[in-house]
Write a structure and sequence with these properties.
heterodimer, A: 567 residues, alpha+beta, FAS1 domain, Jelly Rolls, 6-stranded mixed β-sheet, 14 helices, 28% strand, B: 499 residues, Serine Threonine Protein Phosphatase 5, Tetratricopeptide repeat, two-stranded antiparallel sheet, 52% helix, 3% strand
């Protein structure tokens, strides 16, 4: 009896154990069936019907709701209900379903980009990607009565920016965005202030070039074009009272449609490739134009953008300012900007460029060093590239150029201005390439000479480099360890060498690297690419671009910069 | 049997309760001091006040540098700048940006509040503490609190006024913002008390530069009055410092006309010079936050090219003719390194991690002279103002290229010229943005173009118009309240520009 009761008790304990375990164990495990709990764009709009119910209806009508609720990376400019009501009033409709679905589809596409663009990347110009509609949106900030708002496409203010969602970003806007209706050509035609320019566009046939929708344009690099138009008042100020006067001055062949005609060139020179808003023009230094192989340069001075403001052969040629108020007009196929001063294509003859590579603005600033002190100065890129016009390979061991000057040093004493840049190059612990921006070089054919003081860091050192101008390699290689041979000027030139400095010592010499055809009058990129060998003592003095028909040997240089003419 | 078991159990419990638990049940910490045991003697008061100063030696100098410089035109970002820093420089200022956190400032304010709340009770427990001594300690706390609120006023505009200490959780308050006027009044109230009670000297040179004296209070007053456009009061405060005879400019040239080679060393490398009024006293035990921030390869800012090109300029004919504040003093011309904090001497040696203890210069005597000049310029005494500028320029051997001759009658022209001189004199001392803002907001933003010109100059070319238009909205000149503060204090309302 006692045994049974013990067993019973044991059983009782076990049952209560199992029961206890059972109670603890049987909680339903929460299984996750979705990959993320982030809200997607459509779901977000659903959450705030008081703001977005109308736009949500549009998504339903156009069948895009589910698309925006799926995986992706989008940026949506979402108009509020008030914005859509205003849009309907403008269209004379009362509800959204009265609007043609095709039109609504375009509307949604124009508000949507397949890229995530946060407001901190907004600039004065276009967004980095096209809308799904195929036109760019532009951004900006506008100050009205002391209150600044961020504006999209000059049509809507941003009410709330950067709502980050699972499949993209929403920026809430207070007006519906309307795509541009007119082409660049039509915009100019419709503006009475540009009647002379418009007549010239038509006469040269460039009107048609500017009147093709991107989708219909077979020439891929002309889908988007930008015009820098001159208004009638600008042309009048330059002495052209009407189109006839313009034609009389520039039309040399009598046929403005001919691409060799000067009027045609003049007009083509005012058309840039790509959609270039002022911000785009301000942030790059040169723009290619429709005039074959001609560029315009652009600089931002204060808040003004100047076209063709250049210093050529030491003479400053003031540029033509762009008219901000009359610019940044979006068209279906590009941008219509206005320039507030007449500018023309300048014909320049190729002219020799003697480029002292060590003469950089950043080095000139060191007045106690530049051409004055034997203290050497070196740079690195740890705090960003200190130079505007020099760049070199990044990396832990990437030592930049070393500047040195001395009237007595056997290295620099015969060099132009007795100074140089030492380029430590070659793998694995030195950089493999250098890039220099040249001075302005006029379109034409040139022989390229590189002047250096040869030196070997150790007996077996070599350093072989290829020189590329705008990515085009020059035929001969530059070897900093090789000395100029000895001989008469004619003998040397025949071998591709010359003496460029006053002193005849062969340690200093210039090597002819080949002939280059400079396609545009611009500042170009010259790259020194190491091919083999590694050492520090690559002593670069000057680089010359000499027109092929000019004297290649004279003038020579004294170390103080004085020219020595051919005797 | 059962009875026995019950009895035994009871006994065991009793034993356990009475013997083993006394350590656990002790509520007071064994490895620290609690408030109830602290505020007993005058030494306690002194160490609490010193604690307020110690709180300045953390990350605060870096915060003040960022707030005071990066929206101006004298620093440039580097490849190691953070995206938050770049956003602020590009005018993309949002409340999620951690640079807008004001925690370090309020921390010091709370230390000061604690001293102000609890130090008076020591009078009861320590009879050797006199009322005068107590008030002198309180003056330091009040002045420091005023200075902290002054930074907040200039940076955020409206801020919550926390003037009671938060010494326990149930004292945490949800405060609303106070108006700029109220913050200003609180600052003046603190400074008035401090001026009446602060000592003029601690009879220790380093203390006089690292702790608040009555002259420090006058310097802060001058700055505050100038900010609030109360010129007579500003001149008054400056005159008190000048009249004390305790300060002077360190000569840039020896009497024989030779450049004083020790100038950089005296004023900036060692600090605590005769022209110093108040400095954050970093030393080898407590280095400043600038080594990784401004000196070594991870530096986040360098001086902009504008500093050497246009501010100090160079003499193209004679390279020994230099503004002593320029190359290898404020900045290293070759790479823009911020020499004021990075330089170990004026010949090119850089400080190391262990010697990165350049002080943070809050007020120097030259500041007093230039503040006075500015106040004079706006009270129709342009010529006197220009004379003071001349004193500053002569001592620094400022170059003729930066010399201007504004019409003494034109307050705007004279004060613009003073701004240029201030930029040269206080380069990278965290004053530039506040100077720009003060000069443009004066007389209801009559001179906003001054600020606009400066921000457009340093704006990236493709965002220039964007930034220009943002800064035209004067509400954008103050930082937003950080998101974290908004979430934790429900009474705070975001500043209007950022709503």
């Amino acid at each position: 009896m006692k045994r049974i009761s013990t067993i019973n008790r044991l059983i009782g304990i076990m049952i209560s154990f199992v029961l206890l375990i059972g109670i603890w164990e049987c909680k339903q495990e929460a299984l996750v069936y979705t990959t993320t709990s982030d809200t997607n764009i459509t779901a977000y709009l659903d959450k705030y019907p008081e703001s977005f119910s109308e736009f949500r209806k549009i998504l339903d009508l156009t069948g895009t709701a589910s698309y925006l609720n799926a995986y992706g990376a989008y940026t949506l400019f979402a108009p509020t209900n008030d914005a859509i009501k205003a849009y309907l009033v403008e269209k004379g409709k009362t509800t959204i379903d009265q609007v043609d679905v095709a039109e609504l589809k375009d509307l949604v596409r124009f508000h949507l980009l397949s890229d995530t663009i946060r407001s901190n990347t907004f600039t004065d110009g276009k967004l980095p990607s096209l809308t799904m509609f195929g036109q760019y949106l532009i951004t900006g900030a506008k100050n009205v009565a002391g209150i600044t708002k961020v504006v999209v496409n000059r049509q809507a203010n941003i009410l709330q920016a950067d709502i980050t969602l699972g499949n993209g970003i929403i920026h809430v806007i207070d007006h519906v965005l309307i795509p541009a209706k007119f082409s660049v050509a039509q915009l100019i035609e419709n503006n009475a202030k540009y009647s002379i320019f418009n007549l010239a566009l038509k006469a040269t046939g460039l009107y048609d070039t500017l009147n093709i929708l991107p989708a219909n344009n077979p020439i891929t690099n002309r889908k988007f074009l930008t015009v820098l138009a001159e208004s009638d008042s600008v042309l009048k100020a330059a002495g052209f009272k009407d189109y006839a006067a313009l034609k009389a001055k520039y039309c040399t062949t009598g046929d403005p449609k001919s691409i060799t005609d000067s009027l045609h060139l003049f007009m083509a020179y005012h058309i840039l490739y790509d959609a270039k808003y002022l911000a785009d023009i301000a942030s790059s230094q040169s723009q290619t134009t429709l005039a074959p192989l001609e560029i315009v340069t652009s600089n931002l001075v204060g808040t003004t953008i100047l076209i063709n403001d250049v210093t050529f052969l030491g003479i400053h040629e003031p540029g033509a300012p762009l008219d901000r108020a009359a610019s940044d007009n979006s068209a279906t196929n590009g941008v219509f900007n206005s320039v507030s001063q007449h500018y023309i294509l300048k014909i320049r003859k190729p002219v020799r460029v003697d480029w002292d590579v060590a003469d950089q603005p950043e080095i000139r600033k060191l007045t106690s060093i530049f051409r004055k002190s034997t203290t050497t100065v070196s740079w690195t890129k740890t705090a960003g590239n200190p130079f505007v016009d020099i760049d070199w390979q990044d990396g832990a061991m990437a030592f930049g150029p070393v500047y040195s000057w001395s009237l007595t040093s056997t290295i620099t004493r015969y060099m132009l201005y007795s100074d140089m840049l030492m380029l430590q190059s070659g793998g694995p612990n030195r950089v493999l390439w250098w890039e220099f921006r040249t001075p302005l070089i006029v379109r034409g054919k040139y022989k390229v000479w590189v002047g250096y003081r040869n030196q070997k860091q150790s007996g077996s050192s070599t350093n072989v480099n290829q020189i590329l101008v705008d990515g085009v390699a020059l035929p001969k290689l530059l070897e900093f360890t090789v000395a100029r041979p000895v001989g008469t000027d004619a003998e040397l030139e025949a071998q591709g060498w010359k003496q460029y400095s006053e002193n005849a010592d062969a340690v200093v010499g210039a090597r002819l690297l080949g002939v280059i055809d400079i396609k545009t009058t611009d500042r170009h990129i010259l790259r020194i690419q190491n091919i083999s060998g590694t050492q520090n003592n690559n002593n670069l003095d000057l680089i010359q671009f000499i027109p092929i028909n000019d004297d290649q040997v004279y003038p020579r240089f004294k170390p103080d910069g004085t020219l020595i003419p051919r005797p | 049997m059962i009875q026995k078991i019950k009895y035994l159990t009871l006994l065991a419990f009793t034993v356990m309760l009475t013997t083993s638990c006394n350590k656990w049940l002790e509520l007071k910490p064994e490895d620290g001091i609690i408030r109830q045991n602290f505020w007993k003697t005058k030494e306690d008061v002194k160490s609490a006040v010193i604690g307020c100063y110690s709180s300045l030696l953390g990350p605060m100098a870096q915060t003040l540098f960022i707030w005071g410089e990066i929206r101006g035109d004298m620093v440039s970002s580097t490849i190691t700048s953070t995206s938050e820093q770049i956003d602020i420089m590009n005018g993309n200022i949002t409340s999620s940006n951690t640079i807008t956190k004001w925690g370090t400032i309020y921390q010091t304010i709370n230390y000061c509040n604690t001293v102000i709340d609890f130090a008076p009770q020591v009078l009861v427990t320590d009879k050797t503490l006199t009322e005068v001594d107590l008030n002198a300690y309180l003056a330091e706390a009040h002045a420091l609190r005023g200075l902290m609120y002054f930074y907040l006023l200039r940076t955020f505009g409206e801020v919550p006024l926390q003037i009671k200490s938060t010494s326990s959780d149930n004292q945490l308050e949800q405060l609303a913002k106070s108006s700029q006027e109220d913050v200003y009044n609180q600052i003046i109230k603190d400074l008035t008390f401090a001026e009446a009670n602060a000592v003029t000297t601690y009879n220790n040179h380093d203390y006089d530069k690292g702790r608040i004296t009555r002259y420090t209070v006058n310097a802060i007053q001058a700055d505050v009055y100038l900010w609030m456009e109360k010129y007579a009061e500003c001149i008054d405060a400056c005159t008190k410092v000048i009249g004390s005879g305790q300060f002077g400019l360190i000569a840039g040239k020896n009497p024989d006309g030779i450049v004083n080679s020790q100038w950089f060393n005296t004023v900036f490398y060692n600090g605590n010079s005769n022209e110093s009024i108040f400095e954050f006293q970093f030393d080898s035990q407590q280095v400043n936050p600038f080594f990784s921030f401004l000196i070594n390869t991870t530096k986040q800012f360098v001086g902009s090219s504008f500093v050497m090109d246009e501010m100090y300029t160079v003499d193209p004919l004679d390279d020994t003719n230099k503004d002593i504040r320029g190359d290898l003093s404020s900045i290293r011309g070759s790479d823009g390194l911020i020499w004021k904090f990075a330089g170990a001497n004026n010949t090119g040696s850089v400080r190391t991690a262990t010697s990165s203890y350049a002080h943070w210069f809050v007020y120097r005597y030259s500041d007093i002279l230039l503040m006075k000049a500015e106040a004079l310029a706006w009270t129709g005494k342009g010529q006197e103002a220009l004379d003071l500028v001349k004193v500053i320029r002569n001592r620094a051997n400022a170059l003729p290229a930066t010399e201007k001759a504004p019409d003494p009658i034109s307050s705007v022209d004279v004060s613009d010229y003073i701004m240029e001189e201030r930029a040269r004199e206080f380069a990278f001392e965290g004053k530039r943005w506040y100077d720009i803002l003060r000069n443009s907001k004066r007389n209801k933003y009559a001179h906003i173009q001054f600020l606009i010109d400066i921000v457009t100059k340093s704006a990236p070319s493709n965002r220039q118009q964007y930034i220009l238009n943002k800064y035209k909205d004067i509400r954008s000149h103050y930082l937003p309240i950080n998101l974290y503060e908004l979430q934790t204090d429900k009474n705070l309302v975001q500043n209007p520009f950022y709503q």
